[in-house]
Design brief:
The complex is a heterodimer.
Chain A: E1 2-6, E2 11-17, E3 23-30, H1 42-64, E4 73-79, H2 83-99, E5 103-108, H3 109-115, E6 131-136, E7 141-146, E8 154-158, H4 164-174, H5 182-189, H6 213-233, H7 235-261, E9 266-269, H8 276-283, E10 289-290, H9 294-297, H10 302-308
Parallel strand pairs in A: 1-4, 4-5, 6-9, 9-10
Antiparallel strand pairs in A: 1-2, 2-3, 6-7, 7-8
Chain B: E1 2-7, E2 13-19, E3 25-30, H1 40-54, E4 64-68, H2 74-91, E5 95-98, H3 100-108, E6 126-134, E7 137-144, E8 157-162, H4 164-174, E9 178-181, H5 183-187, H6 189-193, H7 211-219, H8 238-247
Parallel strand pairs in B: 1-4, 4-5, 6-9
Antiparallel strand pairs in B: 1-2, 2-3, 6-7, 7-8
The chains are: A alpha/beta, B alpha/beta.
Bound molecules: zinc ion.
Chain lengths: 336, 248
């Protein structure tokens, strides 16, 4: 069995996976205490991780109905993410592995998101057929060409500023929907007209990189121009148009990437993959689209365990000095 | 009983194993030089594994784990406490949280559990342990020399974050002859010495957190549920402080 931990942001996660990639348990403890700060506070997230991690691991083992003696490999997110938060998971994982002198697999969080698509019974990436991967969440947005299930996928494009999920949350805040408001914005958009306001999709920006900063600014100005009463009255239209722009910005680059690479299969991951209009839009691109269930799109430890199956594990005691890495510390180097 | 002790509250990483039956100890300490970053993440677990080997034992031979719960640097504390909790949980080893300040004071007084305090230097009545809390503050707590070696001894000078000048005032007003130790005492020597407190030379062992003392104190404390052992932060996160200030 593989026991995996994920503490890179504000969710404390543990999962147990069978060696052939089936989920035996997948426990996520969402802290939900960052809303009042308007964003994730690393120190607060880290304190909560430490308080929760023991119980979350116990829950994962209990739900999988196994003891630690059945665990042959401990997997843990090493980065990118919030350093203080990552350190709680890494220290815990290293100690558990060392206590039984078993191997440890350090996993890159982004590989984890891609690997969410490899969980059984999925055959994605298992038959040697390459595919295009779009990962869009509150923390990351990138396109990659994936030729096998290992960590060395080729990043084709990434966001130059905000992540797509961040764009949703920031837009939601501008529309008075609180934080994090991505899901609330999607709900509000259902009653609105996506063509009401022409928001920018950075369509003229060539290549496969994303940019959402201009979109956020456009919404800010539009809200200012409309004034409070009119903004209130047209909130649904604003939400629908804003969401439409994010969806189009993502879909446009996916289309370009499919064209350029000749890839014939698309896999989507990250929290934004749960967005209905995005799924619908990507479904019309004419290639098969794989989207894991919602709970595997947002941060979780099952995806970390899944990725661990395809990294070279470090045997005891090679991981004793292992450290984490922060967001941005290891650049995703686009090779195109 | 064999006890594994560890501390990451200060910039140093300290690990020890004490055999209470024979009094035998092994210990190691990794301290960054000025300007270097602490190496808790990379050093702690390696040092633990090495000290077990040096003590000629393994996980099955460890009867108790003693972890320093601070106060100290938040990230350092979490690495130590997370490691200790995970080891204790994974091997079913009883876990004890030890006040890093109490250990520092007890260590400075002479080894806790030994005949009694006999510091080479002026006669003293009480010992205050002082850890640099940054932002111009120190974490401090003080005990009487007679009481400091007793596990679970209540501090005479309450555990709190203070500015060094306020601590100096408290020591002076108290009237006892104080020994002040720790990186905070060294850092704010000038302010604290004005209170009449005696502070050992910077490189004195009395200023260093010693995990052997954690082990000695832990021998006399009751183990807790691993999940109950948490850092003594003594400070709210900055975001919480700002939020509360904004609401007032
Ligand atoms: Zn993520």
């Amino acid at each position: 069995m593989i026991l995996a931990l994920e503490t890179s942001c504000d969710d404390t996660c543990a999962a147990v996976l069978t060696p052939d990639g089936r989920i035996a348990s997948n426990v996520i403890s969402s802290q939900g205490i960052h809303d009042r700060y308007g964003g994730v506070v690393p120190e607060i997230a880290s304190r909560h991780h430490l308080e929760l991690v023991g119980a979350v691991i116990q829950d994962a083992l209990r739900q999988a109905d196994v003891g630690l003696e059945a665990v042959e490999l401990v997997a843990v997110t090493r980065g990118p993410g919030l350093v203080a938060a990552l350190l709680v998971g890494l220290a815990t994982a290293k100690a558990i592995a060392a206590a039984h002198e078993i191997a440890l697999a350090p996993v890159d969080h982004l590989h984890g998101h891609v690997a969410a698509g490899f969980l059984a019974p999925s055959t994605l990436g298992g038959d040697g057929d390459p595919f295009l991967s779009l990962i869009a969440s509150g923390g990351h947005t990138f396109l990659a060409r994936v030729t096998d299930r290992g960590p060395d996928f080729e990043v084709l494009g990434q966001t130059l500023d905000d992540a797509a999920g961040e764009a949703f949350d920031k837009g939601a805040r501008l529309l008075g929907l609180g934080y994090p408001g991505g899901a609330a914005l999607e709900r509000l958009a259902r009653d609105g007209d996506p063509a009401a306001f022409p928001f920018p999709t950075a369509a003229r920006m060539p290549g496969l990189d994303f940019s959402f900063a201009g979109l956020k600014t456009a919404l800010l100005y539009r809200v200012r121009d409309l004034g409070p009463p009119e903004t209130e009255r047209r909130r649904a239209d604003l939400a629908a148009s804003y969401q439409h722009a994010i969806v189009e910005a993502l879909a446009l680059r996916v289309e370009r990437a499919l064209e350029r690479t000749g890839l014939e299969r698309l896999a989507v991951g990250g929290g934004v993959a749960a967005n209905g209009p995005l799924r619908e839009r990507l479904g019309r691109l004419g290639v098969p689209v794989d989207v894991p269930p919602r709970e595997l799109c947002t941060d979780n430890a099952a995806m970390i365990a899944s990725a661990a199956r395809f990294v070279t594990p470090l045997p005891f005691p090679e991981y004793l000095e292992l450290d984490v890495y922060a967001t941005g510390e290891r650049a995703l180097v686009p090779t195109r | 009983m064999k006890i594994l002790g560890l501390d990451t509250a200060t910039a140093a990483t300290a690990v020890a194993v004490l055999d209470t039956a024979t009094g035998a100890t092994v210990a190691d300490r990794d301290a960054p030089r000025r300007g270097e970053r602490p190496r808790h993440t990379t050093a702690l677990l390696r040092m633990i594994v090495e000290q077990l080997r040096r003590a000629d034992t393994d996980w099955a031979g460890i009867d108790r784990i003693a972890v320093g719960v601070g106060p100290g640097t938040f990230t350092g504390l979490r690495i130590g406490v997370a490691t200790a909790r995970a080891l204790a949980g994974a091997r079913d080893i009883p876990l004890v949280g030890v006040s890093t300040l109490h250990s520092l004071a007890a260590g400075a007084a002479g080894a806790a559990g030994a005949a009694g305090p006999s510091p080479a230097g002026p006669a003293i009545d009480a010992i205050v342990a002082v850890i640099d809390a940054r932002r111009g503050e120190v974490f401090a707590a003080g005990w009487t020399a007679a009481d400091v070696s007793r596990p679970g001894a209540e501090p005479l000078l309450a555990l709190a974050a203070r500015v060094p000048e306020a601590l100096a005032d408290e020591l002076r007003n108290d009237g006892r002859r104080w020994l002040a130790v720790g990186d905070g005492a060294v850092e704010f020597r000038e302010a604290l010495e004005r209170s009449g407190a005696w502070i050992p030379e910077e490189d004195s062992g009395r200023n260093r957190v010693d995990a052997v003392v954690h082990c000695r104190l832990a021998a006399g404390l009751l183990p807790e549920a691993p999940d109950g052992v948490l850092p003594e932060y003594l400070r709210l996160p900055d975001a919480e402080i700002s939020l509360r200030a904004a609401r007032q």
